[in-house]
Amino acid sequence: ETGVTQSPTHLIKTRGQQVTLRCSSQSGHNTVSWYQQALGQGPQFIFQYYREEENGRGNFPPRFSGLQFPNYSSELNVNALELDDSALYLCASSLAAGRSYEQYFGPGTRLTVT
Amino acid sequence: QQQVKQSPQSLIVQKGGISIINCAYENTAFDYFPWYQQFPGKGPALLIAIRPDVSEKKEGRFTISFNKSAKQFSLHIMDSQPGDSATYFCAAHKAAGNKLTFGGGTRVLVKP
Fold first, then answer.
1. Is A40's CB within 8 Å of B105's CB?
2. Out of B45, B97, B102, closest to residue A42 by CB
3. Which residues of A touch B96 (CB under 8 A)?
4. What is chain A's pLDDT, residue by residue, as a tens digit (114 residues)?
5. Across the interface, do B105 and A41 touch by the CB < 8 Å criterion?
6. Residues contacting B9, CB < 8 A, separation 6+
């Protein structure tokens, strides 16, 4: 059973640029959620995708967008990067039903915006 | 709006001691209250979870106590070991939207 993988591991971008982060979900999981974790804080829910559709969104602006592909992998896109976007971005996969509170997290992508 | 409040922010305990982490929530629409453990450089991993109609759940050295009327729940780590040194997050799960709301985290250090 393959776990959740994310790429890249680290990324440095300049303010105003755009970034795409990628996630492969755990085998058998059809739901992918993205979280932003600032240093020393808990993960904050960005949005979730189920069957290639956005299935819920947290308090993040529209410049945060995503995609889910037929194989359940996912992308997080952030446009017009701001310094405050510097954080660890976590992807988590889960089942849509049953133990849906059990989300399997990847190791994250550390984004630094300068 | 912080819907799940966690305390303390950090905790130092001697090996063999008990670590206690507390959380309080506001929204009553949550259906599960999981605890996640995060080691440096890793994503959070589910440790143990409880439903709001259960007052206590124990798995090995980890116990969740849940007080529905007070909207509070806590994690007890018995016989704490140096390998338990990590950051612990309480969370609340809402079935609608399959969304997890996390607390701010507690950094636990177990001294040998």
1. yes
2. B102
3. 56
4. 579 999 999 999 999 999 999 999 988 888 999 999 999 999 999 999 988 999 889 999 999 999 999 988 999 999 999 999 999 999 999 887 667 788 999 999 999 999
5. yes
6. B104, B105, B106, B107
Contacts of A69 (CB under 8 A, 6+ apart): A52
Distance CA A34, CA A3 (A): 16
Pairing status of strand B56-59 against strand B45-50: unpaired
Q: Residue B91 belongs to what H/E stretch?
A: strand B86-94
Burial class (CB in 10 A: 0-12, 13-18, 19+), B61: middle
